[in-house]
Structure prediction request, 339 residues.
Amino acid sequence: MRDWIAALRPGPSAAPAAVRSALAVGVPLFAVIGIGHPEWALFVVCGSFTAVYGRDENPRQRFFTQLSAALALVVATVLGAALTLSQTPLLVIALGGVLAAAGSLCSALMRWLPPGPLFVVLSFASCADISGKTGATVLVAALVVSATALWSLSLGLVGVLRVGLASAGPGARRPRWQALRDRTALDRAAWCALAVAVAGALSVLTIGRHTGWAMVAATAPFAGGTLKASVRRGVHRVVGTFFGSGIALAVLSMNPREYLAVVIIMAAQGLAELFVVQHYAFALLFITPSALIGVRLTSASPVQLLLHDRLFDTAIGACVGVGVLVAAHALAGRRQSAA
Prediction:
């Protein structure tokens, strides 16, 4: 037990990252609720994902990493909001796969940390899952997600202001253009696209209410550097979501008012960022309630239905993601043996 607790101890960069993550989502949420538009909360959350990137980089490098991620998040959010106008699941699944591949390649190109397309797919799929959008709402989505991303970028620049430009470390690393010709990176992007599409299709064929959650869970194992790490991450996704849903049920059963809900989301986001590097399943104890409370700010879906869909779609996506990676590893092994 002592070793397990020691393993959860956050690293030196965790506390500043946790503060940035909490402020990135909390301040804009207070703003949209204050002006009477809690339905914009989802767009705020998507833009706030900018803050999770580059946590271990120096302030100048972090700015350019977050800038590239912010551009991807804005594009994904606007596309997701726009696709709700068509209400075509097949189009959502297909474009989700394309974004998964593009996000995977961008991650390799720009060396994103955390790696992979999870937040890009999450932003797209979450917005595509919400019905009732109009053309005006798509414009609102573009404005709100962009403003939140800029706010998150400004939080990342605090380190530059604190230590001065000359002491903020070297600037942006050059894009790793060879990643676009690297067979491993290209294969991984293709497999990720397949996993997202298959998970989305299975979700539509079963319950089909929150297809995005299955698509996102399918990307989670792809952040693992090895097959063993990928399988472990898939298991963590399911186990952490299960126990996190219990915490979400306890919180949502109290029916917290909007401002209290924002405070809870801020605390959950900060705690998740503290522990996500050390233990993914443990971080999901906070990620899951934060996500579900955020959904409740945007829609009035019954709590039990949300929890059921979250668990079911997460299990589908994680199993598909792990299964695709196992198949990819087996095919790669055969290819090497044949060579």
